[in-house]
Amino acid sequence: MAQIDASEILPNGHVQQLAAEGAVTQLHRGHAYAEEGDTFEIDGATFEVTGIEHRTLGDLTDEDARAEGSEDLEAYRERLNRVHDEFEWDDDSEVVRHAFEPRE
Questions:
Q1: Nearest CA among 28, 43, 34 for reference residue 83
Q2: Contact by Cβ (8 Å): 89, 57
Q3: pTM of the entire predicted model
Q4: Hey, is 76 helix, strand or coil?
Q5: How far is CA 69 from the centre of its chain?
Q6: CA–CA distance from 104 to each of 3, 30, 40, 87 (Å)?
Q7: Residue-by-residue pLDDT tens, the chain, 104 positions
Q8: How far apart are CA 43 and CA 87, in angstroms?
Q9: Among 74, 81, 36, 77, CA closest to 54
Q10: Both ends of the chain: CA-CA distance in Å?
Q11: 17 half-sphere exposure, CB direction, 13 A CA radius
Q12: Is 99 helix (H, G, I), strand (E, B) or coil?
């Protein structure tokens, strides 16, 4: 377990703010950027990584999309296409879910 920078998991200030507000509680990335038990801070609040899970894009559900701040899976796909230059959704693409929650 280590203290990591929030940007390791949450790539920009907007996503970090959504996490601080509780609107984002997980994020899928192409690789594992943390380990379970790692902590990070946003605006003085400490968050703990509660789970790291290897998945594929095809495993994602509407619930996953909502946990990442999107209305549903279709909106999540559209957001990924918008923010990643050469992104193409492939159900077999491997991703890593980073789940986290505020530490009390």
A1: 28
A2: yes
A3: 0.92
A4: helix
A5: 9
A6: 16, 29, 13, 37
A7: 899 999 999 999 999 999 999 999 999 999 999 999 999 999 999 999 999 999 999 999 999 999 999 999 999 999 998 888 888 899 999 999 999 999 97
A8: 31
A9: 36
A10: 17
A11: 3
A12: strand
Within 8 A by CB and 6+ apart from 59, the residues are none
Instruction: Output the six-digit token pair for 7.
Output: 């940007």
Choose among 4, 42, 44, 32: nearest CA to 99: 32
CA distances (Å), origin 45, targets 15, 16, 39, 48, 94: 15, 11, 10, 10, 31
Instruction: Please tell me the distance from the alpha carbon of residue 75 to that of residue 102, in angstroms, as a whole number.
Output: 26
Among candidate residues 54, 39, 50, the one with its CA nearest the CA of residue 8: 39
Positive or negative CA dihedral for 86, 89, 94, 97? positive
3-class DSSP string for 9-75? CCCCHHHHHHHHCCCCCEEEECCCCCCCCCEEEECCEEEEEEEEEEEEHHHCCHHHHHHCCCCCHHH
